[in-house]
Amino acid sequence: MLRPISPGTEDFSTDKLALHSAFILITLICLTHLFCVLSFLTSPGFLPFALPLAIILAIVLFLNWKETSRTSRKQKFFSVGTSLLVFFFSLAISAFYFDLSWDGQWYHQAAIYHLAEGWNPLLEPIRIFDKNNDISIIHFPKASWYFAAAVFSTFGNFEAGKCINFIVLFIALFTLYSAGRSFHLSAFRSAGLATLVVLNPVVWSEITTFLVDGLLFLYLCIYLACLIVCLKQFRLVYCLVGAMAVICLINIKFTGMVFFCTFALCGLLYTLLTRKSRGRFILLHALVTIVAVTAFGFNPYVTNTAERGHPLYPIFGSKEYPDVYTQTGEDANELYETPHNMMGKPLGLRLFYANFGRPDNAPYAKAENAELIWPLSSRISDWEAYRFHETRVAGFGPWFSAILIGALVLLIWLGLLNKKHRWPLILSLAAVCCSILYSKHLWWPRFGPQMWLIPLIPLAFCLAQPLSRKAGTALKLFGLLIAANGVIVLFIHMQWETSSSLKLRQQLSEIRKTHKPIEIYVGWFEKSMHEKLNAWHIEYRKVKKREITKGGHHELVSVVDGYPNMILYRKVE
């Protein structure tokens, strides 16, 4: 395998620009998290200052960091400018879009509002909220909620809190590009590979929402890029960016901890096989994990253990406080979120249906069952399924099944071509595959977004070596197929998000102009709708669904057509 190049001393380079911008931005996210925690320990009045202080301190740390002492002023200026441009662009585009995801309106938004309104998750970890999935709010990791609450408190625009999705997208792009350049990939190949990674349909299906699965994938990729570079040649800047990515990964979702441990274990096996510095590897990973769980993740990991006997409650529980499945006597994901013909089936069969099926969101929308089809045979009309934020069948795109077959061919070719690549390749793919085997629910692309890496890993190994003209052309075509597959989902979903946000804004504006109250059925979206209507200065009275459907009513843009809990309203004359 090619060795990374040493840190450059040139006055200006795109890879240093990308890496330094990534460092500033991810430092900004981590500092905002710490300042939010500080506000919980001191005064809620400090929360509006958490984000501005984090921005200033992140820039000051970068400019005064010894690592950048050989960096020219021009390079530093462009790095800071790029970071600020990314931040304000992310802020603006996020403010335009409404979060119209189901879980986002059910409990993610409610959690952020409660944090901004003064709920202290450190001193008051257990609290009752009204019909907003209390268990999830109280016990789930809160990194994205802290950041969103800080943005909301600073700028007064709630939807702008989703800017973290775009910021982390750029961090991943920058880090992956820089990592590719450190392995002597051309700027074009590095940028192309980084783009293919972030074209993951899970990322783009959730980028305008408060859902966190796309963030989980991006943080994981940032960590992997930094890990791969440091395994070949330790560099402090990559170590720090990777460490901060791990902190965010562990505190974005419970499965982040599980996925991190799986990939770290495969990295440790690589150090054992290659006789690398495994002592430093273990020490750094242990230190980062402790900091992530205690300083950054006091709630939920410490509070869950203290209050409910298990750090991963309610997924796992104790004798006194059983897990959620024992409490309810049912598996909600199995009963309500799984295509009927996949219920009770082994994970392997579920994965086959999910990746070789016709694009659909069964058991919702048009069908209750998943339907198998030949690769590349889906109809354009099937692609309408990508309006959903969590497409279940063919969720990685309509052509992902063909891409998986192409990846198998690449793997065979790589195994025959270069024996030096075998162990790194095997361990990389083993980490992805093993991380999906923890739960029968990880067939769902939303829950196992790292499956997108299966074709990209062999592609990256191929790009890192000299190629014949025919092999290069074949790889370009394969890359174009992956790109087209991702762009299809991106285009269809973002078209729905854009038109829906425009329509909802128009609806709310027209209702406000009447200066008359409305009757409204909010269902499970009580807190999010209450705050939205108040922000638009709309008076309302809640009514039950059967009451509002007796007479004429309208649908307020709220969820994708085919999902339950569409918001209904009518004007009060």
Secondary-structure blueprint:
Layout: H1 14-41, H2 47-63, H3 73-96, H4 102-116, H5 134-139, H6 143-155, H7 163-182, H8 187-198, H9 201-206, H10 213-232, H11 236-250, H12 254-274, H13 278-296, H14 298-308, H15 324-328, H16 332-336, H17 347-355, H18 400-417, H19 422-436, H20 453-463, H21 469-514, E1 518-521, H22 526-535, E2 540-542, H23 545-548, E3 554-556, E4 567-571
Parallel strand pairs: 1-2
Antiparallel strand pairs: 1-4, 3-4
Helix pairs in contact: 1-2, 1-3, 1-6, 1-7, 1-11, 2-6, 3-7, 4-6, 4-22, 7-8, 7-10, 8-20, 8-21, 10-11, 10-12, 11-13, 12-13, 12-19, 13-14, 18-20, 19-20
Flag low-confidence runs: 1-10
Total individual domains: 3
Mean pLDDT value: 93
Strand content: under 5%
Helix content class: 55-70%
- The neighbouring-strand order within the major sheet is 2-1-4-3
What's the overall geometry? Answer: globular
Structural class: mainly alpha
- Cα distance spanning the termini: 74 Å
Order of helices and strands: HHHHHHHHHHHHHHHHHHHHHEHEHEE
Largest sheet geometry: 4 strands, mixed
Count of individual beta strands: 4
Q: What is the overall number of helices?
A: 23
Radius of gyration: 24 Å
